[in-house]
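Example 3.2
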Amino acid sequence: MGEPGWSGKVWIGRDWWCFEGVSGDSRAHGHLCGQVVAGLEGAVRVEGEHGVVAAPVIIIPPGARHRLLGADGPLRAIYPRPLGRLARRWDLTRRSAVAPAPAAWTPMLAGEDPVAALNAEALLGEASAIDPRLKLVLDDLGGELSLADLAARAGLSTARLRALAQAELGAPLAHWRLWRRLEVALLRLRAGEGLAIAAAEAGFADQSHLNRAMNRFFGITPLTIARLLSPLPR
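Structure, written as tokens:
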């Protein structure tokens, strides 16, 4: 049944993903997008590289190694979609370490209607403007073309494409390709597909490949997320 202790649901919105419930075991990990964790009945605790942080809402910047220790009751973990409006609004990339969020974030993220709150926040953000050549590559990143082929399509050398991606995205394109495939896999799981089929349709070599990628970016297995996925509330 996946990692012990995880119970609740996962929602997938246009500009964000959200887990709500009781967290279980989580390995130390980091992921490409930032993460914001809010306790619904008190403080939440996250172990970062500089020790344990406890606060009503905690910000985890992109790439920061961390381990979720739990909360005084249920919690919400929000993952802004990379390059989306919510990510732009919160601008978590300017932060360098796990830290408490501003006090004003608590009522917004711990309220009764997280979907409305997150969508309203996203509307206040501006879509990230990126180099059009890089955007062309990102649009096709979920396919099977090699980075060399994608670079040629954008009129760049492979080395220049890698440098441009690192400068504008803050991570190698190979990492972003994995992230895009994870998005597809989660959507297929939400649609009711099994793990093996979801892995294949997302472009992973097999279910084990999907498992390794999910552990790398979320610290939990696809089986756990599949068990928790729920349709987006309307």
